[in-house]
């Protein structure tokens, strides 16, 4: 069985708390994770009832729990506020690549979280969401001259990646008020997933600090440039041990102190510590929490919270993963080589990392019946396949789950970041609709809210066949004929 995920229908079903509810009403789930899970099940059932997934043109949809997004943003802010100095300026930004959807960026902005962008497209999305330049940070290893000039003109903070980029900035003659930094790589080594490890000796990101002469070069770079006032690191994403992340932040802090001493005044006034908090894809409960990480930082790098530096964070996955579910119909159930295979409509097009790197990116799959109710049947080992035409298009292999049948549904859990918002174009499969949802208290308040209290808010309409034809050169069928 892959990655030892127990069947989610038994292990993670919400638990009732008899102590805080009268016996004749449903008990309020006990833990934060159980509350998220209970809302998810409610939304799945409502989504099926209202045809957000159907047996026609909408076999797959993505659901996003607005309350979970708000809760994780609040948890992040509270965690850092608890360890920050009085009045210390802490800007939290969201790594837009994790969920590149304008209404999501707007929601986060409403929760006091800005945007970390890494391409002209992501910057355009952040601007469309109304994220202010003061709350936007541009990081990318491949910024063009035009991007640099635009960022300076807009007054967006940016972190240069390498010496050549710094020379390009020199030519643009930034004003001392520009919020410009340099990304460094403390070269701490890899985490559990190579492709996510940005602090290896040969990583493509930032100035490799332990290379010969690099540290001195960095100090000189700051001495020569009065407008260089920030220092940035992001030492890895999923798979990086927390201690290694904190060590990376500590190395960055120590370098800032060294630079400020060498320059003779507090030239660096802002430290951008990146994102990278890992998500536990095996459980509904969040671990590690933002709180755990903030406290670890406070112990490992006390100076970070002395108030002498403004701080920037750039979390992506840990802010959004928990909030998202991919919901797909099971089209067929079959058997091959003695193993049951459920052929669903969620595969590589919405779960690219899980399909192509299943060891690194296992997902929990939850089984729902034809009406979107959790299936409660003895677990059976089976494969859960997607619709794409290649053999590896599986989101779970040899997984114990209630036996899936045609017309059932599957939920891919914790897929709010880097899944449906990062679709993979294959077999001309349409990008699924994305629907935010809120769960009322059972009292219908009008609008789109149903009797179940669930209200859906369209974030992205499903792509239509006309859309697919149009983006595939449909407007110029004769283009290659002469
Ligand atoms: C991807 C990325 C992030 C966010 O990483 P998560 O693991 O999603 O938190 C932050 N900063 C930079 C520079 C990144 O490339």
Identify the notable features of this structure and list them briefly.
about 475 residues; alpha/beta; TIM Barrel; 2 domains; 9-stranded mixed beta sheet; 8-stranded parallel β-barrel; globular; binds pyridoxal-5'-phosphate
Structure description:
By secondary structure, this protein is α/β, with parallel strands linked by helices. The chain has two domains: 18-65 and 321-469, Beta Barrel (Lyase, Ornithine Decarboxylase, Chain A, domain 1); 88-315, Alanine racemase (TIM Barrel, Alpha-Beta Barrel). The protein has 13 helices and 18 strands. It has helices spanning 8-11, 32-49, 66-83, 102-110, 120-128, 145-154, 163-171, 214-224, 242-263, 290-300, 317-320, 352-356, 465-471; strands at 60-65, 90-95, 114-117, 136-139, 157-160, 180-185, 207-208, 228-232, 270-272, 310-315, 324-336, 339-344, 365-368, 379-385, 394-402, 409-413, 433-439, 454-460. Strands 1, 11, 12, 13, 14, 15, 16, 17 and 18 form a nine-stranded mixed beta sheet that branches. The chain has an eight-stranded parallel barrel with strand order 2-3-4-5-6-8-9-10, surrounded by six helices. The radius of gyration is 24 Å and the shape is globular. 44% of the residues are buried. The model is unreliable at 10-23 and 442-447 (pLDDT under 50). The structure holds pyridoxal-5'-phosphate. The site of pyridoxal-5'-phosphate (PLP) has 17 residues, from β10 and α11.
Secondary-structure map with pairings?
Blueprint: H1 8-11, H2 32-49, E1 60-65, H3 66-83, E2 90-95, H4 102-110, E3 114-117, H5 120-128, E4 136-139, H6 145-154, E5 157-160, H7 163-171, E6 180-185, E7 207-208, H8 214-224, E8 228-232, H9 242-263, E9 270-272, H10 290-300, E10 310-315, H11 317-320, E11 324-336, E12 339-344, H12 352-356, E13 365-368, E14 379-385, E15 394-402, E16 409-413, E17 433-439, E18 454-460, H13 465-471
Parallel strand pairs: 1-17, 2-3, 2-10, 3-4, 4-5, 5-6, 6-7, 6-8, 8-9, 9-10, 12-14
Antiparallel strand pairs: 1-11, 11-12, 11-16, 13-16, 14-15, 17-18
Helix pairs in contact: 3-10, 8-9, 9-10
Bound molecules: pyridoxal-5'-phosphate.
């Amino acid at each position: 069985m892959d990655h030892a995920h127990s069947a989610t229908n038994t292990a993670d079903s919400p638990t009732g708390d008899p102590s805080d509810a009268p016996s004749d009403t449903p008990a309020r789930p006990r833990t934060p994770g159980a509350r998220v899970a209970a809302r998810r099940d409610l939304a799945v059932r409502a989504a099926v009832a209202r045809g957000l997934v159907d047996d026609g043109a909408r076999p797959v949809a993505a659901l996003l729990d607005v309350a979970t997004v708000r809760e994780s943003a609040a948890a992040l802010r509270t965690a850092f506020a608890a360890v920050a100095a009085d009045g210390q300026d802490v800007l939290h930004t969201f790594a837009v690549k994790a969920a590149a959807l304008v209404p999501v960026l707007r929601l986060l902005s409403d929760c006091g979280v800005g945007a970390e962008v890494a391409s002209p497209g992501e910057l355009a999305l952040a601007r469309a969401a109304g994220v202010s330049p003061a709350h936007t940070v541009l990081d990318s290893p491949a910024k063009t001259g035009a991007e640099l000039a635009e960022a300076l003109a807009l007054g967006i903070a940016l972190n240069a990646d390498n010496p050549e980029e710094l020379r390009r900035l020199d030519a643009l003659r930034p004003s001392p008020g520009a919020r410009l930094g340099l990304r460094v790589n403390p070269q701490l080594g890899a985490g559990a997933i190579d492709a996510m490890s940005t602090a290896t000796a040969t990583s493509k990101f930032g100035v490799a600090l332990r290379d010969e002469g690099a540290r001195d070069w960095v100090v000189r770079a700051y001495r020569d440039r009065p407008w260089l006032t920030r220092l940035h690191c992001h030492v890895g994403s999923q798979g990086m041990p927390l201690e290694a992340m904190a060590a990376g932040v500590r190395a960055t802090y120590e370098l800032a102190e060294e630079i400020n001493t060498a320059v003779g005044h507090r030239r660096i006034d802002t430290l951008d510590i990146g994102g990278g908090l890992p998500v536990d894809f095996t459980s509904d409960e969040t671990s590690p929490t933002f709180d755990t990480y903030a406290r670890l930082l406070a112990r490992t790098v006390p100076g970070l919270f002395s108030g002498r530096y403004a701080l920037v964070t750039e979390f992506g996955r840990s802010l959004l993963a928990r909030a998202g579910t991919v919901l797909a119909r099971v089209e067929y159930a079959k058997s091959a080589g003695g193993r049951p295979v459920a052929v669903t409509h969620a595969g590589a097009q919405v779960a690219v990392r899980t399909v192509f790197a299943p060891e690194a990116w296992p997902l929990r799959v939850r089984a729902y019946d034809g009406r979107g109710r959790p299936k409660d049947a003895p677990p059976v080992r089976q494969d859960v396949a997607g619709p794409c035409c290649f053999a590896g298009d599986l989101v779970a292999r040899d997984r114990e789950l209630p036996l899936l049948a045609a017309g059932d549904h599957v939920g891919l859990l914790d897929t709010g970041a880097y899944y449906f918002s990062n679709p993979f174009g294959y077999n001309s499969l349409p990008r699924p609709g994305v629907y935010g949802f809120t769960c009322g208290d059972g009292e219908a308040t009008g609008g789109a809210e149903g009797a179940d209290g669930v209200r859906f808010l369209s974030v992205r309409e499903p792509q239509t066949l006309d859309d697919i034809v149009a983006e595939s050169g449909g407007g110029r069928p004769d283009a290659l004929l002469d």
